[in-house]
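TA notes, week 10

Several of you asked for a full example with nothing omitted. So below is the full record: structure tokens for the whole chain, then the designed sequence directly under it. When grading your own attempts, check the secondary structure regions first.
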């Protein structure tokens, strides 16, 4: 009878230890999945940023080529898309990037005006802007740690 009492006394302890071990294993699993989800979210944000900057650079490059070819209206539309695509993202970037993007946006009126007038100088302005963009983005990539998400560096 005393053996049965000892077994009965150990049974609740064993159950508690088992429950604690199961809870600990569950929490470790949740923590691992949470960590993976956070890492995946960061990678997704970097990929989205890379896509945004690549798309903007493509539009600017296409506008530059069209202006150099004399297709000023097409170049104006592409340049406008470039500036419109950049504008909403300026406020949410780090200070160095914000200063760079603001400098790019400050050239908008001059570029669009020259393109609207069909001035040959527009191609030169866009070429300079494109080179400034490539150089600035490479510098920002190094400074902000975006190397893996921004090409041209």
């Amino acid at each position: 009878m005393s053996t049965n009492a000892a077994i009965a006394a150990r049974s609740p302890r064993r159950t508690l230890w088992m429950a604690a071990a199961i809870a600990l294993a569950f929490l470790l699993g949740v923590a691992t999945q949470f960590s993976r989800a956070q890492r995946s979210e960061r990678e997704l944000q970097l990929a989205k940023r890379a896509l945004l900057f690549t798309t903007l650079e493509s539009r600017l490059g296409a506008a530059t080529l069209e202006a150099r070819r004399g297709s000023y209206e097409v170049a104006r539309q592409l340049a406008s898309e470039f500036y419109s695509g950049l504008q909403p993202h300026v406020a949410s970037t780090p200070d160095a990037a914000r200063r760079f993007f603001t400098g790019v946006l400050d050239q908008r009126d001059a570029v669009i005006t020259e393109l609207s007038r069909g001035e040959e100088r527009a191609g030169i302005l866009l070429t300079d802007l494109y080179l400034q963009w490539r150089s600035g983005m490479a510098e920002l990539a190094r400074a902000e740690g975006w190397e893996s998400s921004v090409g041209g560096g």
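Residues 132 and 144 are 18 Å apart (CA to CA). Use that as a sanity check on your answer.
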